[in-house]
Write a structure and sequence with these properties.
Layout lengths: L5 H34 L1 H12 E6 L6 E2 L5 E13 L7 H15 L3 H8 L7 E7 L1 H11 L2 E3 L5 E3 L4 E10 L7 H4 L11 H5 L1 H4 L4 E6 L12 E4 L6 E4 L3 H18 L3 E8 L5 E7 L13 H8 L4 H16 L2 H4 L9 H10 L9 E3 L2 E4 L2 E4 L7 E3 L1 H7 L2 H22 L30 H8 L8 H12 L3 E3 L4 E5 L5 E4 L4 E4 L3 H17 L13 E8 L7 E9 L6 E8 L7 H19 L15 E3 L8 H10 L3 E5 L7 E3 L5 E3 L3 E5 L8 E3 L8 H10 L3 E6 L7 E6 L6 E3 L3 E8 L8
Parallel strand pairs: 2-10, 25-28, 30-33
Antiparallel strand pairs: 1-8, 2-3, 3-4, 3-7, 5-6, 8-9, 10-18, 11-12, 11-23, 13-16, 14-15, 17-20, 18-19, 21-22, 22-23, 24-27, 26-28, 29-32, 31-33
Helix pairs in contact: 3-4, 3-5, 9-19, 10-11, 13-15, 13-18, 14-18, 15-16
């Protein structure tokens, strides 16, 4: 065989090399394909799914918060979130128009919107959450308009802008019960109050919308969409009663305004269960707008701070202070209200019999200190009941010393002052041994003496009203609470809070004695401005000077009613009042108004004694058709005042009408001409008057008055407020509520 030519051998080698290269390339591809399919298959499958599916989270509605009667206090509603696809913005003209329109519609800073449009690596970026319907519709209309991309193609802004479902929290009553309800952040997470404490319960389970998208990242038709519905959170029914809460808030609003104090705070509690029926504080803020500082003067002051960091810090501090639920989060020196604790300990331990007396000469020496009585001349010789009625400091120093350090500390702890109450609200202030109260090992006779009348110790309002309720409840100390029931999405009850007795602190007999003594404080002592006719109120006044702020006081009053069968307890505190500073002067009248309105609302029947019968209403006699002189004579004989309108000789109509209720000795307006039937009168100034003077002045204007507040018929009572402002026009015969109080014998400061 002839030898292969050089040319053939070269060609053969080239073919072999090509085959080897081809085989190597095919082998490499095959190996790579095997690796992709067998080794990394799951990773690439998931990556493909991410590119093929659009996953939208559906925010879950938080559970609704109701008052005890079913009124909605907090509720979630459907809103929207506006998002953009920054990767589709391919020229500055489009970016500029997008920024201009969205910032205008959504009320956002242009710079913040522009910054988000520059993140072109993102396919989904939220511009604004919790968008309302009006804004959402405007965004939808804008998304229907067109623009030119960089290749001069006509596109819709809907290629860049999208809208997803969202949820927003609403508070129908704004500032109502702000400290109890609390609020959520824009992220839907609870920030304070019930919203924070029960956040995990209120929070629902988010849903999802999974939609297929094509290679251009456009959403495909609905048949490629899967929806997993969100599940609403558990709803809460509170112990708060909207009606009682409004009584409390109205009273606090008025006293905060009148006293010019830093704040006014109050609690209403069911003494048998510990349920909080109302809790409020002034000043307050709108739960729908918690970031805005309501104190405009403070906001202006902060706005003047040049340094941005310091201004931001001051703003945050002001917000946190605004959000504080002070009835549970702040401590104060209780002052004389604490004397009910010292008295309870002494009676329970039998260290101070009811008939034992002590003579107050205006001061008492304790070691090397002289402690003065608020009445510099002294109260003279008193029993423990009289000492409580007069709020005598030297008397209770002696009572405390009779109890002794060991027993005082025992009852201080038993009444709950060394621990949190356990109320189901966040940020309850915790007592600190050696700081908020004296520890037994370091307590001397000076510390015992000052503590006995409520100085040198600090407690929270919720601790004080819980302790007072313990006395009202036969010595049983309850754990306060604000959530009564939990409801599922269908409204079924899934949990009920049962009242919890923490311990028996004092005996029923001691509690009964204390109730009787505290009733005397209101009927004849420093608490007389809490007197409510028909209801036996038992209470104790307090006026404490702040240790670290000379000349600054806290005025307070704690009470419960009816004393013989307690239903509710009320605590009112006013921080740093100006002018009148005593609890008996300014806190007791507020408590009286809350007690009266609440017990009437709760259908608690009043029981009037003989001294109170003059306050009862009567029914108007019928005078229509009678001669004017006969009618006047009959009404005058019945104790009524008469106002005649018109020059006729016969009564054509009357106000109040026959059988209608009106105050005893009230005014009956008689009309003798048809043209006078629609007449009205001007409300006079009824402030600063005695009961007799106010009646006379109202009658002269053809008006009736209802006496409220301190109703003890004594000459020392002076009116301080009226339900209808002077100068207002009202119908003849209208009833104006006039509030009276005493400024005599209600002080605890010299």
């Amino acid at each position: 065989m002839a030898k292969k030519s050089v040319r053939q051998r070269t060609l053969q080698r080239a073919v072999i090399v090509l085959l080897l290269v081809a085989f190597a390339g095919f082998g490499s591809s095959a190996a790579n394909l095997a690796r992709i399919q067998l080794v990394d298959g799951e990773k690439y499958r998931k990556k493909a799914e991410l590119n093929q599916l659009h996953d939208t989270v559906i925010a879950a509605e938080r559970g609704t918060i109701y008052d005890t009667n079913g009124s909605i206090l907090a509720q979630s509603a459907s809103v929207w979130k506006v998002y953009i696809k920054p990767f589709r913005i391919d020229n500055e003209t489009v970016r500029g128009e997008l920024v201009k329109k969205l910032s205008s519609i959504l009320n956002l800073e242009e710079e913040s919107v522009r910054k988000k449009t520059t993140y072109t690596q993102y396919e989904y970026l939220v511009v604004k959450s919790q968008v309302e319907l009006k804004e959402k519709n405007e965004v939808v209309e804008f998304a229907k308009t067109t623009y030119k991309d960089k290749d001069d193609n006509t596109c819709y802004y809907s290629n860049i802008i999208g809208i997803d479902p969202d949820v927003k929290r609403y508070y129908p009553y704004g500032n109502f019960a702000f400290g109890v309800i609390g609020f959520t952040g824009t992220d839907g997470i609870g920030r304070s109050g019930i919203e924070l404490k029960y956040d995990s319960v209120l929070t629902g389970t988010p849903g999802r919308i999974i939609t297929a998208q094509n290679g251009l990242n456009d959403i495909m038709p609905l048949q490629y969409e899967t929806v997993h519905d969100a599940k609403q959170g558990t709803s809460l029914v509170l112990t708060i009663d909207e009606v009682i809460q409004r009584y409390l808030e109205k009273g606090l609003e008025q006293v905060h305004k009148d006293s010019k104090g830093k704040g006014a705070y109050g609690i209403v509690m069911d003494v048998h269960t510990g349920a909080i029926l109302a809790m409020a504080g002034k000043p307050d803020f709108d739960l729908n707008d918690p970031q805005t500082i309501k104190d405009t003067a403070l906001a202006e002051e902060i706005g003047k701070i040049a340094d941005e960091k310091k201004r931001s810090e001051a703003t945050n501090n002001a917000r946190f202070a605004q959000w504080r639920n002070r009835p549970i989060g702040d401590t104060y020196e209780p002052g004389s209200v604490f004397k009910i604790i010292t008295a309870s300990a002494a009676l329970e331990e039998k260290t101070w019999p009811m008939d034992k007396k002590y003579t107050c000469v205006g001061k008492v020496r304790v070691e090397n200190r002289i402690i003065s009585c608020w009445k510099h001349a002294g109260h003279g010789t008193q029993t423990i009941t009289q000492g409580l009625m007069n709020s005598c400091n030297p008397f209770f120093i002696n009572v405390g010393q009779s109890v002794g350090i060991d027993n005082f500390c025992k009852y201080f702890e038993a009444f709950g002052f060394t621990e949190k109450t356990g109320i189901d609200l966040p940020a309850e202030a915790a007592p600190v041994a050696g700081v908020t109260y004296h520890i037994k090992e370091k307590m001397g006779i000076v510390e015992l003496s000052s503590s006995s009348f409520g100085q040198s110790i600090n407690i929270t309002p919720i601790q004080m009203i819980t302790a007072a309720s313990c006395i009202a409840n036969g010595g049983k100390l309850m754990r306060p609470y604000v959530v009564s029931r939990m409801l599922d999405e269908q409204g079924n009850v899934v949990h009920v809070t049962e009242p919890y007795v923490r311990r028996q602190v004092i005996s029923e007999s001691t509690a009964q004695t204390m109730r009787d003594m505290m009733e005397m404080v209101v009927s004849s002592g420093t608490g007389k401005n809490a007197y409510v006719a028909g209801y036996h109120v038992a209470g104790k006044t307090g006026t404490s000077e702040k240790l670290l702020k000379e000349g600054a006081y806290v005025a307070s009053f704690v009470c419960f009613a009816p004393a013989n069968d307690p239903k509710i307890a009320v605590l009112i505190t006013i921080d740093e009042p100006v002018g009148q500073i005593n609890g008996g002067q300014i806190a007791a009248p507020v408590a009286a108004g809350v007690i009266e309105n609440t017990l009437i609302y709760m259908n608690v029947e009043p029981h009037y004694n003989e001294k109170e019968l003059w306050l009862l209403n009567t029914n108007a006699p019928g005078m229509i058709g009678k001669g004017i002189e006969d009618a006047k004579a009959q009404l005058t004989a019945g104790g009524f005042s008469v106002k005649v309108l018109g020059n006729g000789k016969t009564v054509l109509s009357q106000i109040p009408s026959f059988g209608q209720s009106l105050p005893k000795n009230g005014v009956v307006v008689l009309y003798t001409e048809e043209k006078n039937k629609s007449g009205n009168t001007t409300v006079p100034d009824l402030n600063g008057l005695t009961i007799t003077q106010a009646n006379k002045k109202a009658a002269a204007a053809g008006l009736n008055i209802k006496i409220s507040g301190n109703a003890l018929k004594t000459g020392e009572l002076i009116s301080y407020r009226q339900s209808v402002e002077k100068g207002e026009k009202v119908n003849y015969g209208s009833v104006i509520t006039v509030y009276f109080k005493s400024n005599t014998g209600v002080s605890e400061t010299g």
